[in-house]
Amino acid sequence: DEDNFVPPVVSASEKVVIRQLLLTSLDDSNGKIRTAIGMAVAAIGQNDWPEDWPELLPFLLKLIGDQSNGNGVRGALRCLALLSDDLDDTCIPKLVPELFPSLYRIISSPHLYENSLRSKALGIVHSCISMLGSMSGVYKRETVNLMTSMLDPLVEQFSIILNSPVLSPNPDDWSMQMEVLKCLLQLIQNFPRLPEAKISAVLGPLWQTFVSSFKVYHLSIIQASENADNVGYDSDGSERSLESFEIQLFELWTTIVGNSMLAKVIAGNIKELAYYTISFQQITEEQVQNWSRDANQYVADEDDVTYSCRVSGSLLLEEIVTAYEDYGIDAILEASQVCFRESRELKQAGSADWWRLHEASLFALGSLSEHLCEAQDSGYNVRDLLEQMVTDIVGTGVHQYPFLHARAFSVVAKFSSLISKGICEQYLCNAAHAIASDVPPPVKVGACRALAELLPESNQSSMPNNIMGILSSLVDLLRQASDETLHLVLETLQSAIKSGGEQSTSIEPVISPIILDVWAQHIADPFISIDAVEVLEAIKNAPGCLEPLVSRILPTIGTILSKSKIQPDGLVAGSLDLLTMILKNAPAAVVKAVFDTCFTSTIQIVLESDDHGEMQNATECLAAFISGGRQELLVWGGEQGSTLKMLLSAASRLLDPELESSVSLFVGSYILQLILHLPSHLSPHIPELIAAIVRRMQTSDIAGLKSSLVVIIARLVHLSAPNVDQFINLLLAIPAQGYGSSLAYIMSEWSQLQGEIQGAYQIKVTTTALALLISTRHPELSRIEVNGHLVKTSAGITTRSKARVTPDNWTKIPLPSKIFALLADTLAEIQEQVGDDADNIDEEVSALTHQLNCKVEWST
């Protein structure tokens, strides 16, 4: 019986034998066996060292020191590497002082140990520094003392290793430098207050590594003129490539710049650092090949934070601006100017790669667009540099330099508020021409980005191509697009439709069928389907397009909803989402047309479906029906009272305490629409509604759902004014499980959730409702006690196990005192607000102050 099998317990004497056999096998000639034995030793050492296995560390140190036993050194280092990764804060302080001298001897003895062993020793040092760093928050003095004792010899060796220039893309030639970079990163991140002078000693050699590695990177990766097929993986599965080495360098420089003490040390070299950073950001030959073959990959790499020198370089430039402010912006602008000038010199010299440096300069500036636009406003002349760089591209071959043209489009879009109107209009014209022409896909990607940003700001009458020409070209692109490019084209279409003005009148029959087809094909992809719905919404809002769009959509959507149980996954929920979009802000005639076709089916979905997405979207759709149809909605249903009965049945299902909370997530907004637009029809059903709300709240585990239902209670308080005391009596008459009445339960929840309620409208409704409640001076309010302050029951950290055993303990205070505290907090927050809305704020303060002045002493 496997379930009841109890493995035999190994005796203490047997453990001794096993441990000894493992140790004596660490120098096996087979590397895989050494690794397996090292893993076993490390696993046992986690439990047995040092108490039950005191000889482990002395044996490993002895094995490391035996230079005649190369396999033994390798096995012991591998074992220590595994062991050091998993040690806790009780073991590290014992291990480091004994281990470090042996590791240092290996690191500092290139004549005795091969580079691979020295790299492994450095890897163990890195693990120890990382662990000491994680302990430094609790054991600051002890860890700093340990680190300081090792710092001088470590920095000396780090400097020696980094002084060796990087001469080859082969990982074996710079593996030790890589480990040093990792160690330095941990040192500076975890011990930022170590003596500045000691850390500074390594910055010169680090710079030499940075500069020498760029020369290799430029030849082997950017230009691919040397064999760079040297991507491998170390024993831990981490990538070993020149690209990963450079990214590690960038991460270290970013950390140094972010360290206030070290930033001062390197301040004089920031311009050179920015220059080399931009140079590293040049498009590589591999990227050229990949992006030329696959436009989707180009869009994905541009939009996502990918693992590359371009992204890491942008993060470093961002840190330079953050750390040095105006001086940093100066340095980056000057470096960009130098790179741009060098690209022009290369172009004049006939270099085929001149465009890479030009593109990198634009890419770097584009990644800092927000900072640079602010800098222009502060007096920096960013505009002239940008305009010179983008106009210099005009006239160059779009087929020969597609990525340069794509970058220019993107940069003009990002800096449209800064670049002159004439250049923006020229690039807008070029973008419209590009999407209609036979140009490389990256150029069309850049053109789409430019159109999406520039069209809303353009002067329609000055556009050489009318909007229909642009839309026609985008529709053609849409038919060819897939995956990532589909998002971009849909986004551009949306912008073009919104910018069309009166020209957009005739777009519906041309574009709607294609967008609906895209929507239907990608209904399972929430990102693309949402993009498609947003394009349809733009068509809906275009002059003269709403009615024909509704006529096109309704027959199909009506059929889908009426036969919802046989539809593919996602289609019903997506159809309801589309329907909600149509209903929002639609005229009454459109709402009635949708009502006649889809209302009953939507109700049936709420009453019968078990799909979370369908239920949530149907709830939002019903809320949109009520918001759009209002009182007329009750007449459209034909038989008197039938529509109201259906609406109340839907509310009852959504408030069913047996339903999962997530299904009812939007019931609050639905009921709020009933209260706002059908108050007189809802009044007779308020007792049953409150009882259902209480039952739903008591079974819900989602704070957002509870908060939305509190807002409903608050609206009912307002609805009952000026007879709020009668509403309190109603709550007293409705029972609540575990409480004396619904009033006691609701107020206990409300007083806890008030601080979690989101949205200006919701906060205003609930806060003023609390003021209305307390202004009644109803005697039952003072008899209710609610949670006050959390009582700390034990010292130390509260673990999960402690929390399970000892639940939160709260003080109890009278409800009026809690309400006054909540109102006072809200009043303080309102008074802190500043801005253009001062008049409204004054009104809110006055209203709340009036309520607070109503017999404050009564709360006691």
State the helicity in percent bands. over 70%
Structural class by secondary-structure content: mainly alpha
Strand-residue proportion: under 5%
What is the topology, as strand order, of the major beta sheet? 1-2
Determine the oligomeric state from the structure.
Answer: single chain
From the alpha carbons, calculate the radius of gyration and give it in angstroms: 35 Å
The biggest beta sheet is recorded as: 2 strands, antiparallel
Number of helices: 44
Give average pLDDT, whole number.
88
Would you report the number of β strands?
4
What spatial form do the alpha-carbon principal axes imply?
Answer: globular
**How far is it from the N-terminal to the C-terminal residue, by CA?**
68 Å
In the predicted model, the low-confidence regions spanning at least 5 consecutive residues are 795-802, 854-860
Organism: Aegilops tauschii subsp. strangulata (Goatgrass)
Domain Importin-7/11-like TPR repeats: 553-837
Protein name: Importin N-terminal domain-containing protein
Keywords: Protein transport, Transport
Quick structural summary:
The chain has 860 residues and is an all-alpha fold. 70% of the residues lie in helices and 2% in strands.
Explain how this protein is built.
By secondary structure, this protein is mainly α. Among the domains are: 268-464, no CATH class; 467-539; 544-683; 687-835. 70% of the residues lie in helices and 2% in strands. Strands 1-2 form a two-stranded antiparallel ribbon. Strands 3-4 form a two-stranded antiparallel ribbon. Helix 16 packs across helix 18 (354-367). One of its GO terms (biological process) is protein import into nucleus. InterPro entries: ARM-like (IPR011989), ARM-type_fold (IPR016024), HEAT_IPO9_central (IPR056840), TPR_IPO7/11-like (IPR058669).
